[in-house]
Amino acid sequence: MTEERPADPADPADRADGTGSPSEVPRAAPGTSGHYGEDLFEPAHPREAERIDDAAVVYDPVTTGRLRALGAGPGQRCLEIGAGTGTVARWLLTEGGAAEVVAVDRDTSALAGLAASLDPGPAPPSGAAARLRVALADVTDPASLDSALGSDRFDLVHARFVLMHLPERRRVLAGLAARLAPGGLLLLGDAVDPAAGAASGGSTPSDPNPAPDSDPAAPSAYRRTMDAMWRALRATIGTDIGPVTRYPRFLHEEGLVGVGAELYCPPLVPGGPLAEFWRATWQRMRPALEERGGVDPTTVDEALAVLAAPATPSSPGPAELGPGMLLAWGRRP
Fold first, then answer.
1. What domains appear along the chain, each with residue ranges and CATH number?
2. Are strands 77-81 and 154-160 parallel, antiparallel or unpaired?
3. pLDDT at 223
4. Is the Cβ–Cβ distance between 78 and 180 less than 8 Å?
């Protein structure tokens, strides 16, 4: 997993009995002041929407399947945090039967065409566009969110691949739970990486540049690059996937009931949408990957080539367990 800070017995998050307080906030790497969408992955990049959609192709069926199983959508007011290109918002409006979807993001440029695409004509309008509201807001700033949403409460609040990038995630999670109407559902989805640092027992990311041929079981170029990515993300923008498995506990601390969780690890297929997502991610953040993740350029080149090359008998592609997504949910009584 990601490099965790040393355990602090005085911090409730690190108590052996697991009784963390609702106010605990996982801390970012010292000196971290960057932001997703500013210091990395700028929305204005010509291929950013394509990169996001590659991940959506893989994870949307899992997200929407869980939403459907939990009864989310029909006739409900829904809040979509970090809406990205709007794929989940679209599903809620067109297939989920939501009465209203408020799509919130710090940059809404990728949502500019969503309303028009919901009712493109010339067929009679479905009314989906009228049920969509796009709101520009920063989820880490309570005043910004209050300005966009007022005192509104929602039947569904959903955030995917958002909290993991926020050092303030615990406070943000509490704020999202407070936005639930009675009986409302909060669904969170964030990355977990069961294979991170496998060479060192899974406790810390592997050495990005081990001595050549020093160990037949040494991590692959793909694994070393992936581990370097988590280091670079944490050092640059404060991303930390370590606390993600504690989300069910956090939801319980917020007084939610019916708390549950599931983990999905998609297959890593060379040339497939998930492989393309990771390729685009590593290419976009390559300077940080090498400088702050500590991986050498040759290793990155090898990892990119493995993800791109179609599998053949002589080159079967990556035999790797890629990162997955943990979904955690709970309801306001």
1. 32-331 (3.40.50.150)
2. parallel
3. 94
4. no
Each as own residue / partner, the long-range contacts of residues 9-18 (CB below 8 Å, 24 or more positions apart, any chain) are: 13/243, 13/246, 18/249
**SS3 category, 263:** strand
pLDDT digits 0-9 by tens, 263-276: 999 988 888 899 99
Q: Return the biggest CA–CA distance within the chain.
A: 66
SS3 180: strand
pTM: 0.83
Render pLDDT for 222-236 as a digit per residue (tens, 0 to 9): 999 999 999 999 999
Closest by CA to 149, choosing from 123, 182, 179, 169, is 179
Residue 89 backbone phi and psi in degrees, to 5: -60, -40
Q: What is the pLDDT of residues 170-211, one digit of tens each?
A: 999 999 999 999 999 999 999 999 988 643 334 344 555 554
**Residues whose CB falls within 8 Å of the CB of residue 59, separated by 6 or more in sequence, listed in order:** 160, 189, 264, 266, 325
Q: Quick one: what percent of the chain has pLDDT higher than 70?
A: 77
Count of H helices and E strands in the chain? 10, 7
pLDDT band at 129 (very low <50, low <70, confident <90, very high): confident
Residue 78 pLDDT exceeds 50:
yes
Length of the chain counted residue by residue: 333
The residues near 50 (Cβ < 8 Å, ≥ 6 apart) are: 280
Considering only CA atoms, which of 328, 316, 254 is closest in space to residue 24?
254
